[in-house]
Amino acid sequence: MSGDLKWNKIFGAGLATAMVLVGMPYAIGYIYKTKPPEKMGYFIDAPEEPSGTVEVELPPEWGTVLPVADLAAGEAAFARCQACHTVNQGGANGIGPNLWAVIGGPVMHMPGFAYSDAFNAHKAIAPVWTYDEMDQFIKAPQRHIAGTKMSFAGIRDTETRINLIAWLRSQGSGGYAIPAPDPARQPGAAVPADGAAPVEGGEAAADGQAPVEGAAAAPTAEATTPAQPSA
Ligand code: HEC
């Protein structure tokens, strides 16, 4: 008899265990009330672009756009920076560092200014304020240098940034060369672009290259890049 009882106990224990195991997820679910995420998968912080306007836009073609940039518009755009920055030579640091000769200069170009750790880290990977670096930074400071203490939302409009950068260059950075126009980025590409906007003193078009048969009628850049020097 006692043998039967023993097996009863063993089965009973087994059954109880099984019930606990089966019921556990429900119990836990009840306690924590987990809601399934609205979207499955990992969250990646990328802005959703409406299809068609993928944000893999090329950086501006500096050799073409800088010589014809609107300096007056650039100076006007600098109004947004003036709350924190002076730009005159020898000007005082404000909330942000003085910006005289910053284009083409080293990142953290004002030795006396207390830059953030984020800037210190960024300098190690991108030590120079190239046109591209400046463009990316002004476009979205916090995205380009996460943790920067420059609390400025950024300028989304590419045209405005180009004008501003051209004007900043005129403030002590004239010695920082404008690259020659990139033939591959001219309308009608592939052929050396003879009609590309000239750079002062620059030898833009690579000559000595035999014209490709049938390529003679390639459109020149004249239509889109008026070559008159801006004031
Ligand atoms: C709210 C204040 C503020 C505004 C507005 C602001 N900045 Fe700044 N800026 C800063 C601060 C602060 C820093 C230093 C950032 C750091 O150390 O993280 C800085 C750094 C910079 C640097 C880096 C300089 C260097 O020595 O490496 C550049 C370039 C710059 N700003 C350009 C601009 C431009 C151009 C604008 C306007 C479009 C602008 N800033 C608007 C506060 C500002």
Low-confidence stretches: 197-227
The counted number of beta strands is 0
User: In angstroms, what is the radius of gyration?
Assistant: 31 Å
Question: Which molecules other than protein and nucleic acid are bound?
Answer: heme C
End-to-end Cα distance, whole Å, is 111 Å
Mean pLDDT: 81
Order of helices and strands: HHHHHHH
Tell me the β content: under 5%
Count of discrete alpha- or pi-helical segments spanning 4 or more residues: 7
> What is the CATH homology-level superfamily of the domain at 62-169?
Cytochrome c-like domain
CATH fold call of the domain at 62-169: Cytochrome Bc1 Complex, Chain D, domain 2
The dominant shape is elongated
- The chain-level structural class is mainly alpha
Shape-level CATH architecture of the domain at 62-169: Orthogonal Bundle
What's the level 1 CATH class of the domain at 62-169?
Mainly Alpha
Keywords for this entry:
0% strand; Cytochrome Bc1 Complex, Chain D, domain 2; binds heme C; mainly alpha; 231 residues
Explain how this protein is built.
This protein is an all-alpha fold and 231 residues long. Among the domains are: 1-34; 62-169, Cytochrome Bc1 Complex, Chain D, domain 2 (Orthogonal Bundle). 33% of the residues lie in helices and 0% in strands. The protein is built from 7 helices and no strands. The chain has helices at residues 2-32, 62-65, 71-77, 117-125, 131-139, 141-144, 158-169. The longest helix is centred in the first third of the chain and has 31 residues, at 2-32. Mean pLDDT is 81; it is low at 197-227. Bound molecules: heme C. Residues 80-81, 83-85, 95-97, 99, 102, 107-110, 115-116, 118-119, 138, 148-152, 155 line the site of heme C.
